[in-house]
């Protein structure tokens, strides 16, 4: 039974058949009965459902039906086609159970007889499928063939279908040239000209291209220069060249001739008609890449273009282009790129040209570089341990294989292991001592891993492997035997220089503290030397010298035998000194605190028999002596009571007064503290001192807390505890929080109130124990490591500590507060986050505050200044390399006690016993009992000669700053003006030799002072913005300031000597060249010699400049005298010359006289020096006055005023007051009338006031006594 679909189809065909009543043809005679090939339809399913969408209501289904109709008379084909084209769609149809509409009927394939063959061709808009063209013979019908398509006609209808298929629409990108001038309005789509052109051209295009099969749309897209090139797009099916030419002719006919369209310029480019393939899809450097274009348009005119290089590709060693036609149906062009590089990346165009058509296809390729990851260098020890060399590719490039190669003098076989999926390969090798040549430097081999891809890409990586033979160690000397207290040294020598670590161990495996050994590396080996200066019994044993390289260890051992023997400090002798009466006897004792059997011998080195003395003091324990005799005895053998048992340490001093021995000085140490002191001394000599230190600090803290009541009976115990802390602070490089707590617990005990009376005794004896204690705490603070804690706080009654670790990320402001409520004292310290951010990561800032330390630190020897607040010491674990500022606030104990002054404790003062120093710190604000201090550096002119400068924050300091800055500005401007004036009037005022030399001196004086002032500004900038000071820049600034200011003085001396010579040695005449040579040698040569000698003699010891200012050092080397002495000598010489010259010039002359002009010049010079030299002398007189401490503020102000305006004085006295200069200037500017009137008056000419320094330099003298490395601060009142 037939299906309903086929029944409907038959019905529809019958309807179409019977609907042709108006067609004037006898269809019955020409049309065979309609035959639906049942067997074919069954196989091919001609009923193809096009759309069927499920919904709640019935939706029509759309079908495409292939129908084959045969005619006996082929002449009726065209009328049938015309009739089908004339039908109006849709055509409704009726059925008993559903409605069917015919939407369209199109003729796709027509077969005609051609001789003995049947040729089947496709109608317009249709073409044969490609697979049918490949398997069926073709024919050629010129009228219907498409452009270059050889498969528009087949011989015979292909069995089993399908028929010709509908072509897709294409967009032809076309252009044509108009031979008219291009106008700019054609670039503006909104212009009238553009719209007019577009309208006219699109009208002509529509009329011409509407004749093309499948035409849909044409649009003008723009205009470009080249006459006028019109670009437009045509949407249609692919037409044949013949149809396209006809359409173009129609366009020409329908376009106004004024446009002058060029028929030969028509071009058409079509896209998406070419199959463009690239192999491989992912391209790597070195691959061989094949690009292939395939199209059914038959043409051998194919070109390849690289867009980025703007060049056509031709055959070469790396590029190959091959074009062919396959089976007379497909054009194929292949571009092959060998060993592709990243420069070859970009967009490629394959373009096939046929007539006016260009079939273009584009594709962009990326070339990925190959990166092989591997360690570039490795060092391998020849110890037969397996070592792996690893190579991996960053990307998987379809590697086909990975190869390993060896290069170099050494060949070590290995086993490769490759995992292509992970793109990695491992090469494992073992090197033993027989394979590695001897030698400390090792032998290098190159191992290359090479990755090879399927398409030819190669990537390689070279690994440089240095094979190092195992270190052979020798140790000297032979077995060591020493007595306790002696020294020994062990040298461990390696024949290779490569190692990661060298260390020494005890036989128990405990590392020796690293301060006992040093290691040096040489080109052919290395050596480590273990040196012990004072041997204790702990050093008895076996020691291992270990060289480690990676996981390989070379070990050699040495036995050390230490024979017990008391150390000299542990041997107690009584008496230390004895006076024995004749015929008397005396017992000498030699004791140790050990239970050992030693052989003891007494030896008499010398005997003396002094004259008889008046023995008045006698004591069986102390001894005998005359009045005034001083005897020292060990406290252990004295009459000091032993409270705690055990040997008492220290020395007690007696003095014979009258007939009794009196205690002059008691430095006895209680037995417990003495025991701790001896243990501390032994610990510093122990090979494992860093391991024992934590336990010892804990015992020290506990012991000092227990025996603090004994300190008053044994004053030396306090000093012993300070010595213990000093010894221990040099032991370790790292201190943890528990160790720091024990240290501060001990410090808290020694600074408690009951101890203050003992500290006063220490002060009276002028010891530096308080400074030593502060220094010890500072060293412990610098070594503090707070593990994982960012902040650490320790609070004791008499000491508090805060610390912060600098972590990565955003820096935080360091701000800490300290409050001692029992003593009503407080203080704050702050460091801005900018300064904190400049510190190294993981460094620590530690601040320790002491409320009672200020009372025991050495005060001003004159009793004028005294500490008036708590003491805070701030340390940083790493060196400070950037500008640094710290601000502090103190509670002032006695606000009415005087003017507060911020100071810090300088350990180098008073012969390294320490003292208060104000350098680098100033009072920022005083508010009631609160004093704010800032560590900063400012400069005042008066500091140059004054070691005791005014406080920068005071009214006087501010006033001197203002004067200095204003005067310096005036000086620089005046000196520049002076040089300009001299340049303008030079020819007019240097007509004779005397005037020439005078103005030469003035110009050099002005130039030298100008350069010196500029260098002063540089030094001030270094001083104010770089703290600690940049040493190199500071040395350079100091040198040039010294040199140029000395040049000012020596040129002034030259001027005076020249005057003296011209008036005293009248008959002697010297050429101008000789005078100039002498002048420049004196003006610049002498200052250069003095400056070079000064820096050469002091800079190697780093004492050329001051610690807190860029100026000559005073405290350490007195280098400042290299400036002061020449300056003062020149002032005295010039004063003398002035007196001689003035007296000479006023006396009547006998014999030859200078000419009138020269005498006028000489008189002018004498007046200048007569005015300037006293002024300069007064300047330095006030400068000398400021040197003395406590000098009146008036001297500072006058000194600053006179020196700050030196440039102005030179301009006035040296230039503008010179009559000849005035006349030359007036003449230069055509003011002759005013000049003639002015010439009647007398003008005082003068030389430059160069004998004094500018205030910027003089102010630096106040900094010469201090260091800038401020660590501990307090506030002082005076």
From TrEMBL:
InterPro entries, per database record: ADGRF3/5_N, Adhesion_GPCR, GAIN_B, GAIN_dom_sf, GPCR_2-like_7TM, GPCR_2_Ig-hepta-like_rcpt, GPCR_2_secretin-like, GPCR_2_secretin-like_CS
GO molecular function (one): G protein-coupled receptor activity
Domain SEA: residue ranges: 166-273
UniProt keyword annotations, A-Z: Cell membrane, Disulfide bond, Glycoprotein, Immunoglobulin domain, Membrane, Phosphoprotein, Repeat, Signal, Transmembrane, Transmembrane helix
Example of a GO cellular component annotation carried by this entry: plasma membrane
Natural source organism: Canis lupus familiaris
Protein name: Adhesion G protein-coupled receptor F5
Summary of the function given for this chain in its UniProt record: Adhesion G protein-coupled receptor. In alveolar type II (ATII or AT2) cells, required for normal lung surfactant homeostasis. Modulation of both surfactant secretion and uptake by ATII cells is mediated by the downstream activation of GNAQ/GNA11 proteins and may be a consequence of increased cortical F-actin assembly induced by ADGRF5 activation. In the kidney, may play a role in the regulation of acid excretion into the primary urine, possibly by regulating the surface expression of V-ATPase proton pump.
Domain Ig-like: 274-366, 471-561
Residue intervals passing through the bilayer: 955-981, 1002-1023, 1043-1065, 1077-1099, 1119-1146, 1167-1188, 1194-1217
Residues annotated as domain GAIN-B: 790-951
Subunit-structure text: Homodimer; disulfide-linked. Heterodimer of 2 chains generated by proteolytic processing; the large extracellular N-terminal fragment and the membrane-bound C-terminal fragment predominantly remain associated and non-covalently linked. Fragment generates by the processing enzyme furin remains attached to the extracellular N-terminal fragment. Interacts (via N-terminal extracellular domain) with SFTPD.
Coiled-coil blocks: none
Domain G-protein coupled receptors family 2 profile positions: 960-1218
Membrane topology classification: Multi-pass membrane protein
Signal peptide: 1-21
């Amino acid at each position: 039974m037939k299906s309903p679909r086929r029944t409907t189809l038959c019905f529809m065909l019958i309807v179409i058949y019977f609907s042709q009543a108006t067609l004037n043809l006898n269809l019955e005679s020409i049309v065979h009965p309609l035959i639906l090939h049942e067997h074919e339809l069954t196989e091919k399913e001609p009923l193809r459902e096009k759309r069927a969408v499920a919904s709640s209501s019935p939706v029509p289904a759309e079908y495409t039906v292939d129908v084959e109709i045969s005619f006996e008379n082929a002449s009726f084909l065209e009328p049938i086609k015309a009739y089908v084209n004339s039908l109006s769609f849709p055509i409704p149809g009726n059925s008993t159970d559903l409605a069917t509409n015919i939407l369209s009927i199109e003729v796709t394939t027509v077969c005609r007889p051609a001789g003995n063959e049947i040729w089947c061709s496709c109608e317009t808009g249709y073409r044969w499928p490609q697979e049918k063209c490949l398997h069926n013979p073709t024919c050629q019908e010129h009228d219907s063939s498409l452009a270059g398509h050889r498969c528009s006609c087949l011989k015979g209808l292909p069995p089993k279908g399908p028929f010709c298929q509908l072509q897709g629409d294409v967009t032809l990108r076309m252009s044509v040239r108009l031979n008219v001038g291009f106008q700019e309005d054609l670039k503006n789509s909104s212009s009238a000209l553009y719209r007019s052109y577009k309208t006219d051209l699109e009208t002509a295009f529509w009329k011409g291209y509407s004749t093309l099969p499948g035409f849909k749309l044409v649009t003008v897209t723009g205009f470009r220069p080249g006459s006028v090139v019109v670009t437009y797009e045509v949407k249609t099916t692919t037409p044949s060249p013949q149809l396209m030419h006809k359409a173009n002719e129609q366009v020409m006919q329908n376009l106004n001739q004024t446009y002058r369209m060029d028929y030969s310029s028509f071009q058409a480019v079509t896209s998406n008609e070419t199959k463009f393939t690239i192999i491989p899809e992912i391209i790597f450097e070195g691959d061989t890449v094949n690009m292939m274009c395939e199209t059914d348009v038959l043409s051998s005119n194919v070109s390849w273009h690289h867009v980025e290089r703007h060049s056509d590709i031709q055959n070469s060693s790396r590029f190959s282009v091959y074009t062919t036609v396959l089976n007379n149906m497909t054009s194929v062009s292949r571009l092959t790129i060998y060993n592709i590089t990243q420069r070859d990346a970009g967009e490629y165009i394959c373009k096939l040209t046929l007539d006016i058509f260009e079939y273009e296809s584009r594709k962009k390729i990326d070339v990925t570089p190959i990166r092989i990851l591997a360690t570039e260098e490795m060092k391998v020890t020849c110890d037969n341990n397996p070592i792996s060399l690893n190579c991996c590719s960053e990307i998987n490039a379809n590697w086909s294989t990975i190869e390993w190669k060896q290069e170099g003098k050494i060949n070590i076989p290995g086993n490769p292991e490759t995992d292509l999926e992970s793109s990695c390969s491992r090469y494992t090798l073992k090197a033993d001592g027989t394979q590695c040549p001897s030698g400390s430097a090792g032998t290098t081999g190159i191992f290359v891993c090479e990755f090879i891809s399927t398409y030819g890409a190669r990537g390689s990586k070279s690994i440089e492997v240095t094979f190092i033979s195992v270190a052979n160690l020798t140790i000297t000397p032979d077995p060591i035997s020493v007595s306790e207290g002696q020294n020994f040294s062990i040298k461990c020598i390696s024949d290779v220089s490569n190692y990661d670590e060298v260390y020494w161990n005890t036989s128990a495996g405990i590392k020796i503290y690293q301060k006992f050994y040093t290691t040096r590396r040489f080109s052919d080996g290395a050596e480590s030397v273990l040196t012990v200066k004072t041997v204790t019994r702990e050093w008895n044993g076996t020691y291992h010298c270990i060289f480690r390289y990676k996981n390989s260890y070379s070990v050699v051992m040495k036995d050390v035998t230490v024979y017990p023997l008391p150390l000299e400090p542990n041997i107690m002798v009584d008496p230390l000194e004895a006076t024995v009466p004749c015929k008397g006897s005396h017992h000498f004792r030699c004791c140790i605190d050990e239970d050992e059997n030693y052989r003891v011998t007494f030896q008499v080195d010398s005997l003396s028999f002094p004259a008889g003395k008046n023995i008045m003091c006698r004591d069986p324990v102390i001894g005998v002596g005359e009045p005034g005799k001083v005897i020292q005895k060990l406290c252990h053998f004295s009459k000091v009571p032993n409270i705690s048992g055990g040997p008492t340490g220290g020395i007690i001093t007696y003095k014979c007064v009258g007939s009794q021995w009196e205690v002059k000085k008691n430095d006895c140490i209680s037995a417990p503290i003495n025991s701790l002191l001896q243990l501390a001394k032994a610990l510093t000599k122990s090979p494992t001192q860093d391991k024992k230190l934590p336990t010892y600090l804990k015992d020290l803290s506990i012991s000092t807390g227990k025996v603090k009541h004994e300190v008053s009976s044994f004053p030396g115990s306090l000093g012993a505890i300070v010595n213990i802390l000093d010894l221990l602070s040099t032991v370790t490089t790292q201190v943890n929080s528990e160790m720091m707590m024990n240290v501060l617990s001990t410090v808290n005990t020694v600074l408690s109130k009951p101890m203050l009376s003992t500290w006063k005794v220490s002060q009276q004896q002028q010891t530096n124990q308080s400074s030593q204690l502060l220094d010890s705490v500072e060293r412990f603070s610098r070594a503090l490591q707070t593990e994982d804690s960012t902040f650490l706080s320790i609070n004791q009654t008499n000491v508090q500590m805060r610390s912060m670790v600098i972590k990565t990320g955003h820096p935080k402001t360091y701000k800490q507060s300290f409050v001692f409520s029992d003593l009503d004292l407080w203080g704050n310290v702050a460091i801005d986050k900018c300064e904190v951010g400049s510190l190294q990561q993981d460094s620590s800032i530690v601040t320790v505050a002491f409320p009672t330390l200020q009372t025991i630190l050495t005060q001003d020897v004159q009793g004028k200044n005294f500490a008036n607040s708590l003491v805070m010491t701030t340390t940083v674990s790493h060196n400070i390399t950037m500008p640094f500022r710290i601000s502090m606030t103190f509670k002032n104990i006695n606000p009415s006690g005087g003017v507060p002054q911020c100071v810090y404790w300088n350990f180098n003062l008073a012969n390294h016993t320490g003292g208060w120093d104000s350098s680098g710190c100033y009072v920022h604000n005083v508010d009631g009992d609160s004093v704010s201090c800032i560590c900063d550096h400012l400069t005042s002119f008066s500091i140059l000669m004054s070691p005791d400068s005014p406080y920068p924050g005071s009214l006087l300091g501010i006033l001197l700053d203002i004067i200095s800055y204003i005067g310096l500005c005036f000086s620089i401007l005046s000196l520049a003006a002076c040089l300009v004036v001299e340049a303008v009037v030079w020819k007019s005022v240097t007509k004779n030799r005397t005037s020439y030399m005078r103005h030469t001196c003035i110009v050099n004086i002005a130039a030298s002072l100008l350069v010196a002032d500029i260098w002063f500004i540089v030094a001030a900038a270094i001083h104010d913005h770089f703290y600690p000071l940049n040493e190199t820049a500071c040395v350079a600034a100091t040198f040039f300031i010294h040199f140029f200011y000395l040049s000012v003085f020596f040129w002034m001396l030259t001027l005076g000597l020249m005057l003296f010579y011209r008036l005293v040695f009248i008959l002697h005449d010297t050429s101008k060249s000789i005078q100039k040579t002498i002048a420049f040698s004196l003006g610049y040569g002498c200052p250069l010699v003095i400056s070079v000698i000064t820096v050469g003699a002091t800079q190697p010891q780093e004492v050329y400049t001051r610690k807190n200012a860029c100026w000559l050092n005073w405290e350490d080397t007195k280098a400042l005298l290299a400036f002061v002495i020449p300056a003062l000598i020149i002032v005295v010489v010039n004063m003398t010359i002035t007196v001689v010259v003035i007296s000479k010039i006023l006396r009547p002359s006998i014999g030859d006289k200078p000419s009138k002009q020269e005498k006028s010049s000489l008189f002018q010079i004498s007046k200048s020096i007569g005015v300037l030299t006293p002024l300069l002398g007064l300047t330095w007189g006030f400068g000398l006055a400021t040197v003395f401490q406590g000098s009146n503020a008036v001297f500072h102000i006058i000194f600053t005023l006179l020196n700050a305006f030196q440039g102005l004085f030179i301009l006035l006295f040296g230039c503008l007051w010179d009559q000849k200069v005035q006349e030359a200037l007036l003449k230069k500017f055509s003011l002759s009338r005013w000049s003639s009137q002015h010439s009647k008056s007398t003008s005082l000419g003068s030389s430059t006031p160069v004998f004094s320094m500018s205030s910027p330099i003089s102010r630096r003298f106040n900094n010469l006594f201090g260091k800038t490395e401020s660590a501990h601060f307090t506030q002082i009142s005076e």
